[in-house]
What does this fold into?
Amino acid sequence: MGSTILLAASGLTPVTADSPNAERIEDLYWVLCAIAGLVLLSVAVPLVLFVFRYRSRGRDRTIEGPQIHGATRLELAWTLVPIGLLVIALAFTFYKLPGITLEAQAGERELEIRVEGRQFYWQYEYPNGAIAIDKLRAPANTLVKLVITAPDSDVQHSYWVPGLGGKFDAIPGETNDTSFKAKVGVYKGQCAEFCGTQHAAMLAEIEVIPVDEFDSWLEQEAEAQEAGDSDLGEEEFLGACTKCHGPQGEGLVGPGLSSASVSDAENVAQIVRNGRGRMPAVGEEWDDRQMDALTSYLRKRFAEEGQSGG
Ligand code: HEC
Ligand SMILES: [Cu+2]
It folds into this structure.
């Protein structure tokens, strides 16, 4: 379908669906798009034709047109056809809707991951306690259930990775579930609910990798985070801090960070947990493991930059 490719290239259509639930959403999009297109044409084309066909051609404006009463077939048609179209749209929607939530078959593995929307990053928690920020890793061809929420102290966000499904609100204190099942690949998404100054920087990414690779990575990652020698601190800095303090900590929406401002771990932890002035409490519910990862990363990073004169 050449026209489909053309539309897709122009960015007017949804991205290609790569999960069964997203495929259903895509199917719905195309059927509703076709019906809406049909309606548009059936109104717009006669409108343009009539404008030319029945224009006044210099006749006096006071001359009345022919008085026509009743056109039963026409009236029936413009009542029944729209009803028929709405019934088709409704029936097709209800036919496709149930499959938008994926259910695990008997004995099928299901991995549940908690997703928290926060100003201005996504925090993921795996069943074994491992944490990831912004970038989620997931096993291929496995049912992954996302439990989406936000901390009470935060604002509302919306988790959206279009290739893998619809938008789901991340509401403080409430949970919304969605799921996906995808092939190996990288799927991009973003926050779809305006949530503050750095909303546009609230990007999400899901990297789907082979199951074996995923399982061993997850185990190692949890152990490394427990032992305090993972990349969690760097992930936290990039995801939770640089969006305001700049990619190099040079300052953006917030002030620049320096070895002086981050050397006191207690002080940093206090600011990150409670916020300060215009800085939100970005790490309000972070546990000690998360906070230690951040503070030790910051100390190392800014000490190095101090030596190199940057
Ligand atoms: C939403 C934007 C935003 C985010 C995200 C953010 N900050 Fe801030 N930060 C600020 C602002 C604004 C200030 C200045 C606060 C004030 O009014 O005193 C600040 C101040 C600070 C200070 C004090 C600086 C000084 O010179 O005294 C530190 C330290 C700090 N932030 C660390 C962090 C760390 C670490 C993170 C990531 C975990 C982070 N911030 C995330 C906006 C942000
Ligand atoms: Cu957001």
